[in-house]
Structures are given as C-alpha cells and as structure tokens.
Design goal:
Family: Belongs to the zinc-containing alcohol dehydrogenase family. Class-IV subfamily.
CATH topology of the largest domain: Quinone Oxidoreductase, Chain A, domain 1
GO molecular function: S-(hydroxymethyl)glutathione dehydrogenase [NAD(P)+] activity; zinc ion binding
Pfam family, one: ADH_zinc_N
CATH architecture of the largest domain: Alpha-Beta Complex
Number of helices: 12
Number of domains: 2
Subunit structure: Homodimer.
Strand content: 15-25%
Radius of gyration: 20 Å
Largest sheet: 7 strands, mixed
Organism: Glycine soja
Length: 388
C-alpha cells in the first residue's frame, strides 16, 4: 500500500468550543486528495489570530455575521496557522511539489491568472481566496477525531503533527532555512512587513507610526525602515518592547501609559504637530482604530489596519476620516502568496531581518497550554512549538 493512501494517527491541539480549554488529542489525518499535500510539521508558532480562533473568530463570528446559520458550528478546531513542515505525500495532480520539500503554509493563494492577480492591485486571489469556513476548498475536512469532523484555521492546522493543505496554499522554501524563522515568516512578521512595503508603499523620508510592537508591528517597523522612512515611532504600553523596537528600527518609542495624552497627540508632538505620513494599527484593539488614523496628517495621512481582534464591527471617529485621511484594510499585508512571500522567505534565509529577536520562548506540543501563559509575560514576543 502506498503511504499516500494511508490514514495517519497523530497528536494535535484541539479547541472544542468558545471558552473551552485547548487539549492535545489523538486525531486521524486522511491522505491528500488530488491537488493536496500532507505535511509533517517540524515546528509552529503562535499568532494572535490563533487565540482569537478559540473565541470563535473569524469562523463562527464571521459566519454568524453573514447569517449563514447552517454553518455556525465550527468546532472542534485544530489550531495553528503559522509553521513550517516537510511534505510527507502528495496528490496525483500536484506537479510543483514533491515528497521531502520543506514548505510554509499560506492562507491565500496566487493563481496568477484571475482578474485580481493579473491587475497586481491586490493580493486577494479570486481562484484561491481566504478560506473562512475552516474547511478545504471542496468544503470537506481531512482531519477527524473519534469519527467527528475537525475544522481548522483558514487553510491549515499547524499545531498538529501532520496536516493536509491544498497545494496552492503552501510555499516551498529553502530546506536549510531556520525553522523558527520560517514559521514567523508564514504569517505575523510578513503581514507587518508587507503592509509597509505593498499596502502603504511607504516613501523615503516619511514619518511612520506603528501601534503595537508584537511580531506584526515589528515587521511593519523594519518594512518601513527598508522603504526609507526617516522617522519610525513605535507605540506600545509594554516598556519591554522598546528594545525590541530599536532592534528592528524604531527611532522613537511612546508608552501611552506614561502620559495623560492620547497616543495620537503624542505622535503629533514628535512630528512637529503634523502627525505621521503613515500609521499601522497592529493590535486589534478597537479603540485604536480612530487613534491610528488621528495620528496621521490631515488630508494626506494613511492608516493601514492589520491587527485582528474579535469584534466584527469597529467604532470610527467621524472627524478622524472626514479630514481627508485614508483608512485601508489589509489581509496578509498585501503580500502575494508566491511572488512576494518568496522574496521575504529568501531575505529571512539570508538573515536580512533580525528574526532571532522575535524568538523568546519555546514549548513542546504536549505543553501547548503553557504557551498561552507565556504569552502573558511582558518579555514574550513569539512562542515556538517544537514538534516531536
């Protein structure tokens, strides 16, 4: 029997419902179908979206918002969407990947033929879109537990020893790339970097404000620096993030907790009263939406929303946007899954980014709940999950 046709029993981190604990369970992973690959995970990391998923976002909340009541139960979920692994088997229609290739997951694809891909105006491919349902493109799952179907986050489930992904949602990387760094590049860091590079198109000599100096924010910092920004203001209530921000390129640090003024007022004070040319909201904190916009220049300022919380609707101050500023949303920082992400993966492999500064803690899959506690520590940026 070919191993491609075998069902694999392995361990995975599972969330059974909103507010329920995450448990490491024995699950079954089916063989890949024709256009799919089965991946043995090498390591993974934790992104805030993984935490949001345990609270029902984006799947359950988005689907409820869209009033598709027949799809409202998206549990149990096999968690994780950042990681790196090695292809264990491939479907018979996969021609661009093979067993043994090292890959990172993506949650958007790039067909290079649809209207959006050809225009290059957006990274949101129409053929391989974001998978909101937690299922494969054919609306089925390759993962189950005791006979029950398991959903996953977007296009994958990286907190599992094995997972199956459509081949159009993985990117082959250099097999010698640092595993933890490859994991960071698969989502968080790249999202921030791409927002500065592809979405805002930060101009040389400009002033930038970055709200939140986690992995996403630090990506926006170094992305802005590499675009030539002359002043990069990092905003975070965690004083420990000052040193991290400086390692990636901030020129100024604001801790809003040290002042009775708003963050936007403090940004304006540092920028001669004018505000920043660009700002990046990387926290997902709803009240910072207007703040990030207010922190930019009247008439020409641009704010990019990257952070994801659990609210479907967000408050926005009228005058923040009425005075000519631009507010733009972003998925994966505007990065195209092949054309752009491959460039970042190459830069990461060549150590052009200080990605080692992101790596602060590590756990095994069996100790996944310890990772949630580590995330609460002020010195934590990224937690790496080492697979057996």
């Amino acid at each position: 029997m070919s191993k491609t046709s075998e069902i694999i029993t392995c361990k995975a981190a599972i969330c059974w419902g909103i507010g329920k604990p995450v448990t490491v369970e024995e699950i079954q992973v089916d063989p890949p179908k024709a256009t799919e690959v089965r991946v043995k995970m090498l390591c993974a990391s934790i992104c805030s979206t993984d935490i949001s998923s345990t609270k029902g976002f984006p799947h359950s909340r988005l689907i409820t918002y869209q009033k598709q009541s027949n799809l409202q139960t998206n549990f149990p979920i096999a968690l994780g969407h950042e990681g790196v692994g090695i292809i264990e088997s491939v479907g018979d229609q996969v021609t661009n990947l093979k067993e043994g290739d090292v890959v990172i997951p993506t949650y958007i694809g790039e067909c290079q033929e649809c209207e959006n891909c050809v225009s290059e105006k957006t990274n949101l491919c129409m053929t391989y879109p974001v998978r909101w349902t937690g299922l494969m493109p054919d609306n089925t799952s390759r993962m189950s537990i005791r006979g029950e179907r398991i959903y996953h986050i977007f296009s994958c489930a990286t907190w599992s020893e094995y997972m199956v992904s459509d081949a159009n949602y993985v990117l082959k990387v250099d097999p010698t790339i640092d595993r933890a760094h490859a994991s960071f590049i698969s989502c968080g860091f790249s999202t921030g970097f791409g927002a500065a590079w592809k979405e805002a198109k930060v101009e040389s000599g400009s002033t930038v404000a970055v709200f939140g100096l986690g992995a996403v924010g630090l990506g926006a910092v170094i992305g802005s620096k590499m675009q030539g920004a002359s002043r990069i203001i990092g905003i975070d209530t965690n004083e420990n993030k000052r040193a991290k921000g400086e390692a990636f390129g901030i020129t100024d640090f604001i801790n809003p907790g040290d002042s009775n003024k708003s963050a936007s007022e403090l940004v304006k004070e540092l920028s001669g009263g004018m505000g920043a040319d660009y700002s990046f909201e990387c926290t997902g904190v709803s009240t910072l939406l207007s703040e990030s916009l207010e922190a930019t220049k009247i008439g020409t300022g641009k704010a990019i929303v990257i952070g994801v919380g659990i609210e479907i609707t967000l408050p926005l101050g009228l005058f923040a946007i009425l005075l000519g500023r631009t507010l733009k949303g972003s998925v994966f920082g505007g990065l195209r899954a092949i054309s752009d992400l491959s460039i970042l993966a190459d830069k990461g492999h060549k150590k052009e980014f200080p990605l080692q500064e992101l790596f602060t803690h590590e756990v095994t899959l069996a100790d996944i709940n310890k990772a949630f506690e580590l995330l609460k520590q002020p010195n934590c940026v990224k937690v790496v999950i080492n697979m057996p």
